[in-house]
Amino acid sequence: MTKAELKQRVDAAIDRRAEEIIGLGEQIRQNPELGFKEVKTARLVEETFGKLGLAPKGGLAMTGVRADVAGRAGDGPTFALLGELDALVVTGHPVADPQTGAAHACGHNAQVAGLLGAAMGLLDSKAFDHLAGRVVFFAVPAEEYGDVEWRVAQARAGKLEFLGGKPELLRLGHFDDVDLSMMIHMTSRPEDGKTGVPASNNGCIVKTVRYIGKASHAGGAPHMGVNALYAAQIGLAAVNAIRETFRDEDTIRVHPIITHGGSQVNVIPGEVRLETYVRGRTVEAILDANRKVDRAFRAGALALGAKVEIETLPGYMPMTCDQTMARMYRDHMVAVVGEEHYRQIGHRTGSTDMGDLSMVMPVLHPYMGGATGSGHGADYQIVDQKLAYLGTAKALAAMAVDLLADGAAGSRDVLKSARPPMTREQYLAFQRGIARREVYEG
Ligand SMILES: [Zn+2]
Ligand SMILES: [Zn+2]
Asked: Measured in angstroms, how far is the CA atom of residue 136 from the centroid of ligand 1?
């Protein structure tokens, strides 16, 4: 059987399950959960894998679920298809969890529906009779790097080391036997067309910043206090002042938030907490901007005679997609969506922990349309369920065929030319080297 015939069979199998796959995507959309807490979503994935006759392993990096299927047409590389389980807190999103505020404003529900749909299509069509090597269906936790204080507490309690899903899975060895991997993020940007592959994505470092002043009576004795909020404001103003030193080509993004701004209004704030990312196109650019950001935050403490604790946490690595996989994806998807709807997407300034995998193995991370509104915005919604849910399922499954049919010739081609920049040990050592805690007394 040719690859084209096999892909047609898989597509037909996915179409037969269309209602079920869309239902799964919608069920997840209506039950959004934050990273490392995706308990209901993980259970749904495990149950669905179970119904397909797979033997999933759950609880990986807290909530990850992995199921492997070996091809019956010989040995070959192991290809992982990923779907991210988590949502994020977006104020005012209409389909947010009333308790946690979590909402699927990044379309991860479609990623998981696509992952499950791909498994259904490949299994129902008996595609594994014609594939060599192995496919790993992997629902992964916590791509959105938020809820930082809770995650830091989990790390202190020894439940996590890295605070993002894929870095933590890498650390725990759950990707040790994976040779190449792929996932698809949704896009709501019209300029991305129906689908396309980005040239690269920013990486990031994550920081928590705590200004410690001295509380005192805000009316009766402000002179006895040290105002941590004013120290933080000066720190933030200093961060804004250094923006003009960032080069356009480094695409630096620094976007702090205040997570605690004072205890109550008649008390001079004794403690103020901030979080920020420092994002950039290259590791060098991120580290350079990070040094300036630290200096700016110190300035706030210096001005007020306050203290500042700056904790720098490993974030996500810049991402580069494998060119051989990108070509394969393009060749297949142009035929599916039409040349005019396919895009070679440029550099994207968001970050994803797919970048971390791209440090150690060839990866592919296309974007798929079907959403409108602003990514991470309250108006974000999936409007084309066929494209977002079924299109993702078909695109993932088609890559499994392209890479693992014909004795896995496609994946062997990819691995022959791929030069991931780091070994897994080098990656872990690099990320551990980022972690740093500084206390500056102003
Ligand atoms: Zn995302
Ligand atoms: Zn996102």
From this structure: 20
Rounded distance between C-alpha atoms, residue 231 and residue 211, angstroms = 7
> 312 C-alpha vs ligand 1 centroid, how far in Å?
22
Give the pLDDT confidence of 244-277 residue by residue, as tens digits.
Answer: 999 999 999 999 999 999 999 999 999 999 999 9
Task: Please give the Cα distance from 104 to 273 (Å, whole number).
Answer: 26
Question: Can you read off the two tokens belonging to residue 128?
Answer: 């594994």
How far is residue 392's CA from residue 374's CA, in Å, rounded to a whole number?
20
d(Cα 299, Cα 293) in Å, to the nearest integer? Answer: 10
The beta strands (E) that lie in 127-266 are given as 134-140, 180-182, 185-186, 195-212, 253-254, 257-260
DSSP string covering 272-324, please? Answer: EEEEEEEEESSHHHHHHHHHHHHHHHHHHHHHHT-EEEEEEEEEE--EE--HH
Q: Which residues surround ligand 2, an ion (CB under 5 A)?
A: 106
- The closest ligand to the CA of 112 turns out to be 1
| Distance from residue 348's CA to the centre of ligand 2 (Å) | 12
Q: 181 C-alpha vs ligand 1 centroid, how far in Å?
A: 16
Q: How far is the CA of 352 from the centre of ligand 1 (A)?
A: 7
Nearest-ligand number for the alpha carbon of 367: 1
d(CA 64, CA 342): 31
Confidence of residue 48 (pLDDT cuts 50, 70, 90): very high
CA gap 163, 158 in Å, rounded? 12
Ligand nearest to the CA of 85: 1
Q: Which of 371, 384, 372, 379 is nearest to 94 (CA)?
A: 379
Give, as one character, the DSSP assignment of residue 180. E
Mean pLDDT of the chain: 98
